[in-house]
C-alpha cells in the first residue's frame, strides 16, 4: 500500500506515531458538530 501512495513504510509509521495536531483536533471537533446537525 505504501508504494501505491508513494511513501516509505518508515515514513508511514512515523506519521502514525505522531500525536494529533491542534488542527487535527479542531477538524475532528467540527466534524462531530456538523454530524449532530
Order of helices and strands: HHH
What structural class should be given to the helix and strand makeup?
mainly alpha
In terms of DSSP E residues, the strand content is: under 5%
| Biggest pleated-sheet summary | none
N- and C-termini, Cα separation: 35 Å
Q: How many structurally independent domains?
A: 1
Gyration radius over CA? 14 Å
> How helical, in percent, are the residues?
over 70%
Task: Report the strand count.
Answer: 0
> Globular, elongated, flat, extended or rod-shaped: what is the shape?
elongated
Overall average pLDDT: 95
Short description:
This protein has helices at residues 2-5, 9-17, 22-36.
Description:
This protein is mainly alpha-helical. The protein has one domain (2-36). It has helices at residues 2-5, 9-17, 22-36. It starts with a helix and ends with a helix. This is IS3 family transposase.
Give a topology summary.
Elements: H1 2-5, H2 9-17, H3 22-36
Protein name: IS3 family transposase
What features would you highlight for this structure?
single chain, 37 residues, mainly alpha, 76% helix
